[in-house]
């Protein structure tokens, strides 16, 4: 089926949930006081969903692929920042593992969408989901 709205993309939905979880985690404890890391991880996580949405709205696969590449890079940035947050004791092991798994899932979904779009022969088609 064709997807007509970025809000219907599972990858965008999962990126939205990850964003909310990151915002929640960065509001409490020592993490909330690490203004530099809070700002950086929030910007990176917001970038994931924003780039998926912007690329989708461009209306063609070529541009969408560019924005998906940026979103994937931001997902990597979030994972790196989660490692830092855990290493400096801003996150419990449980929080860290949960957020890291979510970020990895989003990254994998972006990769899958990239592969799917690259296989598509229709340059202007919207995303197809099973």
List its traits:
single chain, 130 residues, mainly alpha, de novo design (two linked rop proteins), elongated
Structure commentary:
The protein has helices spanning 10-25, 29-33, 35-57, 61-87, 93-119. It has 130 residues and is mainly α. It has one domain (6-119): de novo design (two linked rop proteins) (Up-down Bundle), CATH 1.20.1440.
CATH architecture descriptor name = Up-down Bundle
Count every helix, treating DSSP H or I runs of 4 or more residues as helices: 5
Question: Biggest β-sheet: count, sense, barrel?
Answer: none
Number of strands: 0
Rg over C-alpha atoms, rounded to the nearest angstrom: 15 Å
Round the mean pLDDT to the nearest integer and report it. 92
What is the overall silhouette? Answer: elongated
Count of the separate structural domains: 1
Classify the fold: give the CATH topology. de novo design (two linked rop proteins)
- pLDDT < 50 runs, ≥5 residues: none
Distance between the termini: 7 Å
Return the structural class.
Answer: mainly alpha
Following the backbone from N to C, one meets helices and strands in this order, namely HHHHH
Question: What fraction strand?
Answer: under 5%
CATH class: Mainly Alpha
- Classified in CATH, the superfamily is 23S rRNA-intervening sequence
Helix proportion range:
over 70%
Task: Write a concise synopsis of the structure shown.
The chain has 130 residues and is an all-alpha fold.
SSE topology sketch:
Blueprint: H1 10-25, H2 29-33, H3 35-57, H4 61-87, H5 93-119
Helix pairs in contact: 1-3, 1-5, 3-4, 4-5
């Amino acid at each position: 089926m064709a997807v007509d709205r970025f809000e219907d993309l599972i990858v965008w939905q999962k990126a939205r949930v990850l964003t909310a979880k990151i915002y929640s985690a960065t509001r409490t404890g020592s993490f909330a006081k690490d203004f530099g890391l809070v700002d950086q991880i929030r910007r990176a996580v917001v970038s994931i969903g924003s780039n998926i949405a912007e690329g989708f709205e461009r209306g063609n696969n070529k541009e969408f692929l560019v924005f998906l590449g940026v979103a994937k890079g931001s997902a990597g940035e979030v994972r790196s920042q989660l490692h830092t947050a855990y290493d400096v004791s801003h996150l419990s092991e449980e929080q860290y593992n949960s957020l890291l798994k979510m970020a990895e899932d989003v990254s994998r979904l972006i990769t899958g969408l990239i592969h799917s779009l690259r296989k598509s022969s229709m340059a202007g088609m919207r995303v197809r989901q099973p």
